[in-house]
Target: MBL fold metallo-hydrolase
Amino acid sequence: MDWDAFKALRGGVLAEPAAPGVVRLSESGLRPACRSFFYRIDTPDCAVLIDGGWGLARGRADLGLSPGKPVVAIATHSHSDHVGALHLAETRLGHAAEATVYDRLDPNETQARPWIDDLDFAADGTAVAPETYQQIPCRLTGTLADGARLDFGPALRLTVLHLPGHSPGSIGLLDEARGLFYTADTVHDGEIYDAIPGADRIALRLSHDRVLEVEFAQALPGHGALMSRSAVVERIERHRRERDR
Ligand SMILES: [Zn+2]
Ligand SMILES: [Zn+2]
Model:
């Protein structure tokens, strides 16, 4: 089956509360192990979308976005499992180091391929032809640098941390008021990839050093469960032990 037919058949997004005012989104058409997590935060003036999954959202309604309300999407990085719904937002922000990838979302540049060529990712076992996988491009409307502050009013303020290593333009987003840290693929409880094209093991080590200095209550990663700060510390220490072996 081709990707667009699969999307029409198995598209849709699961929504679950993750923290006060924060909804965690994922795509039910995918096997749980292949899903990524992305997040919607509603403010009085706009909805903020942090990442956008593989692309099984068929429209704004699937994301629970109110018609007529502006949507600001923030991309933590340009890998295929996080960028699929970003085109649905009129404002799209990400780090300059990966800006050109969003222009076309070429499956080779988003690391979709060859990753998906042998990946059995459909929850119902459908074989999706990898050569038909093409996401809708989402050229950035603005870039984010380390230390940038995104002010959505009293309901939401986010600070950008440039955390290269998993990819050159990976960012984390810190919501100090809620004690939430969106860590994407830089820290999560699954395999942290640091040897794929664009990854840099030494840069990741320095980025993990930075994460260890951040105060937060809960990490909201791009994969796997929400993590306490102590779970994040343990995960980084385990990653280091594995690499030092
Ligand atoms: Zn990634
Ligand atoms: Zn990922």
